[in-house]
Amino acid sequence: MVQDRTRATRAAARDFVPSGALLSILLPPTYGSHVTETTAFTVLSVEVWSSGLVVNVQLASDMAPEAKIVLQDHFGTEYTLRKSVTLGSRNLQVFSPSLPAGVRSLTVKAADDVTGRPAVTFAVPLMPAPAEESGPQLRRPA
Fold first, then answer.
1. Burial class of residue 19, CB neighbours in 10 A (0-12, 13-18, 19+)
2. Which candidate, 17, 22, 57, 112, has a CA 20 to 30 Å from the CA of 138?
3. CA-to-CA distance for 43 and 49, rounded, in angstroms?
4. Considering the entire predicted model, what is its pTM?
């Protein structure tokens, strides 16, 4: 029974990963902890895929509600939450679109924080223009 649940969880997580190539993984320059009266979470990383972004969030506990977050960049790109999954105290959220070319920062904020303070701001390294299959790329597992 437990083994079947583990297989189902792994299959769901594999289907959760965006399609396309993994372009970069952004790590927070500081401890990306966010605590208010209504929510508590820590942003661990952001995966930049060619088709979207995956925000990796650590919740305060296994029973904590899913973090409601918003993404912002200095271009004003509108990021849309596509799907979310919580495994224990880990919450993964997929947003689209991916980062636009030339973006230099990405900010993660709690959607319900009226002060508007960021949980964490990531510096985005200069990324090459999308490759035209000229070289090896990291691909989503089958």
1. exposed
2. 57
3. 17
4. 0.78
